[in-house]
Amino acid sequence: MGATPLFALNLVGWPRDKLPFDLLGEVLRGGAGRGGRRGRVRAGRTLVDDPEPKYGMAAIGEAHPDRIVTNGRRPAGRRAGADKPLGTGVLTTALKRDLLSEAT
Length: 104
Hints:
By secondary structure, the protein is an alpha+beta fold. It has helices at residues 21-37, 88-96, and strands at residues 4-14, 41-49, 54-62.
């Protein structure tokens, strides 16, 4: 969003009785790879037992107030980006509730 990244904190919800910690290690390595390419330093992680796996990062950075990029103040010619196709959240929620057909 126009900032220089300083550090990131991994935030994890993990169903330790359902998924192996080896898989969590792969998730964390994937996040470390993405964070490292952006110059962030990983500052640690917060892990809670959760029936549904969740993973994200809280990133802290510095930006000049005039250079912060928002959807409302995007430079001319710069496209807005999305990290996944629109509607994905609705479909994953329906999947978790057993509301999707196999074809969908």
